[in-house]
């Protein structure tokens, strides 16, 4: 992959010049760390009966400490758990409820004095979801239709069922336990179509196509719909934004961005969708803007410290992380973090290697960076950022060396996804 992959061809000369089932929801045994496992909505009644036993013997708080209350939906916390008489009557349990409320306030960009993360704010491995790496391209030049999936418990990758189309510089996101792959380039032409992977059927299904064919787009989901942001073809960078309604299987246009952005990164954070960096057809961008769906309006926010396109973007602990990418010529190892409560960017620890065209997602309280191009070769290495240690560390490798892949975390269980073996698009080397 080269910087030109995130810039229209006509601009290159310019640049040179410049859920589990309810029956399984409650287990009598504990996880290795002593934590009880339950599915909030389906199992609260049974779990509540168990709580009564601990309440009667004076051990209610001890068992409630094992429950990750902050990870429950805020509506369930306030509407069910907080109204429970046993919880209301126990001071220690009320402190745990305060921790859960503060966690949700923090994630919604509210300033919470002295807020601290705890083990209860980190998903358990068995329920954290599956990391998908979808499409991209490697040294062979042809885009992949293969996907690779990361098993958190085994710390290993395996191949899942392949897409219908080859796709590089594809937009990928997971919503409602399904994975969506949108647009990209198949080696011959730009794509506007979309396909969806359902872990229950282990199949990719074609869905409605976007109005604009493009690669280098970014996807974000906020309040239900999926937003397809920016992108480029061989002639133009786009400021177009389309919104996909999952229920009606229909795309519609929303307000365009203020700036064209190909190779842009995006994520939904708080009540906004952010568009980070990208290339406007002439140069890589440090600018950032965010979309308010209620006003149908894009507004500029603070610029990054570094211009970058082909960067990965994810969120963690209420902050936005932008990882790697290309400046006008070279892949980057720098990583920046934006705190919307402070309206400020800051650099954090660098990647172990530069990564342009990197795929990024957050799982188990860490930001994962998958593949990319370091300026010499395509990469199959994967590294993860630990925010408490402010450190990146290598955590294994995908089988295919690839850049321009889409990476997302699906809320399915890893055992649902069929391991198809080596796949048909094997890469011999990483050049």
Automatic annotation (TrEMBL):
Keywords, in A-Z order: Kelch repeat
SUPFAM superfamilies cross-referenced by the UniProt entry: Kelch motif (SSF117281)
Compositional bias per record (Basic and acidic residues), positions renumbered to this chain: 7-25
SMART domains: Kelch (SM00612)
InterPro entries associated with the record: Kelch-BTB_domain-containing (IPR052392), Kelch-typ_b-propeller (IPR015915), Kelch_1 (IPR006652)
Transmembrane parts of this sequence: none
Region of interest (Disordered), residue spans: 1-25
Domain of life: Eukaryota
Protein name: Kelch-like family member 8
Gene name of the encoded protein: KLHL8
